[in-house]
Each structure stands twice: as structure tokens, then as C-alpha cells.
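Researcher: Let's continue the batch. This sequence belongs to SEC-C motif-containing protein, and it's 171 residues. Same format as the previous ones, please.
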Amino acid sequence: MSEKCLLDQWRDMAYNKELSKDQLEQFWGTYFNIEKGIYEQLLDAPDVEVKGTVEELAKKYGQEVLTMAGFLDGINDSLKVPNPIETMDASTEVSLAFDKEKLYKNMVDAKADWLYELPQWDNLFDEETKKRLYREQKQSGTIRKEKKIGRNDPCPCGSGKKYKKCCGKNA
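Model: Same format as before. Here are the C-alpha cells for SEC-C motif-containing protein:
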């Protein structure tokens, strides 16, 4: 295949190093508004599976095919069955059937407050559930170190000996 797949074309456009910082900010600002609009529609009917070709979905949401490819790239990790985004073209059949909790957590992970604070989430999750999902996602990236056992501390195996004379002997 000599022509680049849609995802590569999208990435070339979205991460164009020849654009100025202002141009990139304007590009992403416009994209994030488009993305927000699509998510509002999806979250209004979360149990309805939206399917079609990339081109059909682009028309449905009033977008260009490349913009739809970017959206599909962003939502892919939240789908029940991922789409073949690495190889898709305009006629590839795709589905937007998403896992609600996974989508919410991925939005939190992406720090996309304009998405995880959409009012449509209030119809899907109560406040407590949203807080729990938010906390779970934030904690999933936190690395916790266990307290180090000192040489003269009691051995954690419960033998009553010092660590250095018991399980720490071979460490």
C-alpha cells in the first residue's frame, strides 16, 4: 500500500512540526470542540452502538474523514472491541460501542476535564461513582513503595527472630 493509512495522515496533520505554536493551539482547540460535540451525542445514548464506515461516521457527525480518524484514535482504548485504526481507510467498518467506566477513566487519565465533566455523565453515573472512578484512575498511576524492612526489625514471617537472622540471612 503506497498511500498512508488514515491514522498516519491524521498524525502528520495533527503533529505537524512546521506549524507554529499558535497554529497548533488553534488546530487542537478546534479539534477538542469537535471531539466534545461527538462525545455529547454518544453519551446522550450510551447503549446505542454507533456503527458504519469511517466516511459514514464522519458525515453523521459533520466532520472530515481525517478528523474522524483522529477521534477514532482517541476513543479506541475505551471501546468494547477496538477498531483496526492502524490499517483503516475511509471504507473501513468501525464501531463506537464503548465501555462507560473505561471511557470515563481514560478521559481522566488524559486530563480532559472538558470531557469527563460533561453534564451527560450525570445521567450515567451518580456523583459517588464518578468520584470513585476518578480516584481509581488517579491511583492507578501512583507507585507505592513498601516500607523497607530494617536488618534489626522483627522478621515479617512471624518467627520472632530479627530479620537479619531469619529471612534476611540470604538476601
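Researcher: Any comment?
Model: The chain has one domain: 6-142.
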